[in-house]
Amino acid sequence: MSSIITVAAAQLGPIQKSEGREIAVARMVRLLERAYRHGAQVVVFPELALTTFFPRWYHEDLDEADRWFETALPSPETAPLFEAIRRFGLTVYLGYAEIAYEPDEAGVMRKRRFNTSVIIAPSGEVILKYRKVHLPGHAEYAPARKVQHLEKRYFEVGNLGFPVVRAPVGEAEGVNMGMMICNDRRWPEAWRVLGLQQVELVMLGYNTPSMNMENRGFEAHHLRVFHSQLSIQAGCYQNACFAVAVAKAGTEDGHEMLGHSIIVNPQGEIMAQATSWDDELIVADCNLDMCQLGRSTVFNFGLHRRVEAYSRITDQVGSVAPPTWPAR
Ligand code: ING
């Protein structure tokens, strides 16, 4: 049994607001075929890969935004994607906007909206589903912003935790796979919850503006890519895992998003990086045995973690001011 799997980041260039799903799906099928020809077994697409990054647009009536969501997967528009997954025998991460009719935490059956990703098996079955936990931005129209970022308007906080599942990939008997979506990568808690389940391969898609849209404070532009990669490299190193992080990049209706998709190893090294901000495939061979070193030494959680010292992490939401010295 080999421990080496070949993974691919299938970065997407821009999808314009006027472009229907069939355009994105056709581009994604072409990337799946290229991935297959490169010998890839796992392919990761971006967050909200089927449409433009619609949370930049304000809809007063939420139901008007339903056009950006999937109520079923596969659907007639996404069926070609599932056919290609079966044809090429690939394991695929797909990010999309999900409408689900299910009970909420109070037991009330209702229409719910999530920023979702799934891992799809070569058979076309869904192996695992994740719903984005860390929703950046705001819920109401914010006139001071250069561009809106209305994820808190269109999505509920994900209610599936950060699950990991072990599933076969190619010749590998099993790979411990987990997912994140975009902003999640900036939160070490997300990585650690996956790491505590012995994740070996974190798959994540993102749609990240290439410049600060908050119109507050100064953030040098080059730091946008640096912060994205810093978060992913640190997450991999501190949890002894691989990550495939994939952008939806380029300019959508005048709004530029960064590319720089990367594949990172458990030492935090970038193994491959996209160099365009358009549709681009990058591929790397990942030896899953590399996870063992970190997990059995520096990040041997069972040996070194001291949970009794970490209670603030789950007891507190926001930060609190420290006591002053000398005490008044
Ligand atoms: N986008 C961005 C992201 O986390 C963002 C939002 C950008 C937050 C830069 C903070 C700094 O990459 C999404 N879709 O989460």
UniProtKB/TrEMBL annotation:
<feature type="domain" description="CN hydrolase">
    <location>
        <begin position="5"/>
        <end position="288"/>
    </location>
</feature>
<dbReference type="Pfam" id="PF00795">
    <property type="entry name" value="CN_hydrolase"/>
</dbReference>
<keyword id="KW-0378">Hydrolase</keyword>
<dbReference type="InterPro" id="IPR036526">
    <property type="entry name" value="C-N_Hydrolase_sf"/>
</dbReference>
<protein>
    <submittedName>
        <fullName>N-carbamoyl-D-amino acid hydrolase</fullName>
    </submittedName>
</protein>
<dbReference type="GO" id="GO:0016811">
    <property type="term" value="F:hydrolase activity, acting on carbon-nitrogen (but not peptide) bonds, in linear amides"/>
</dbReference>
<dbReference type="InterPro" id="IPR050345">
    <property type="entry name" value="Aliph_Amidase/BUP"/>
</dbReference>
<dbReference type="InterPro" id="IPR003010">
    <property type="entry name" value="C-N_Hydrolase"/>
</dbReference>
